[in-house]
Amino acid sequence: xxxxxxxxxxxxxxxxxxxxxxxxxxxxxxxxxxxxxxxxxxxxxxxxxxxxxxxxxxxxxxxxxxxxxxxxxxxxxxxxxxxxxxxxxxxxxxxxxxxxxxxxxxxxxxxxxxxxxxxxxxxxxxxxxxxxxxxxxxxxxxxxxxxxxxxxxxxxxxxxxxxxxxxxxxxxxxxxxxxxxxxxxxxxxxxxxxxxxxxxxxxxxxxxxxxxxxxxxxxxxxxxxxxxxxxxxxxxxxxxxxxxxxxxxxxxxxxxxxxxxxxxxxxxxxxxxxxxxxxxx
Length: 281
Hints:
Number of helices: 6
Mean pLDDT: 94
Low-confidence stretches: none
Strand content: 35-45%
CATH class of the largest domain: Alpha Beta
Distance between the termini: 9 Å
CATH topology of the largest domain: C8orf32 fold
Number of strands: 14
Order of helices and strands: EEEEEHHHHEHEHEEEEEEE
Structural class: alpha+beta
Helix content: 10-25%
């Protein structure tokens, strides 16, 4: 599937600000499941861009605006070709007895730990044991966790902030895609099943039935020995497929915000975000 993504973020400040230093994680990754065919990043006021790859191989663009400005516009346009990577729902590729293997794998270590917004709490551990009881396979257990989060936590726009911790979502039983991903990851990690956070986009098509497709989306990936990282979306209760575009991965949202920065000046500001994902051809 060929998809185009337009992502615009606008900051409007009540008074001019200066010495603004920013990071953008907006370029889709290229891997075995998708190829970023083109990418354009536009900054206003105009700024010189540089880029590098972080610890998780995410592409980060850096720019600074030393002079006073009262608005900041960041626009990215991408074209991505995605490929099917669907693991059958009824597949049983790895028995639960293989979970301890993951703790000895370097690629899994960081995704078994507590992180900024996720903790392997006693509550998460009890939930994990109850949810996975009777499941002998890691892929089936991961799907059971996904279904539980989808069924027991309400998707409520604007009910949380980007800084909301998993423990608060467990208490209130509501949140947005970021929060549902955090909860699922925490439950997986509580029983030593490696799970990471994914930021990206979701193509909804003309039917407008999927949640989270009107903005940046978030889901998680679990590691299945012999298979690798497999995507699951608790917001929509489904494995990821060619409609999903991956931007960046990390331990949780703190590792992958689309934009992050700091500046000198007023804290009175307004931010608006527009995202459009369309099929090509």
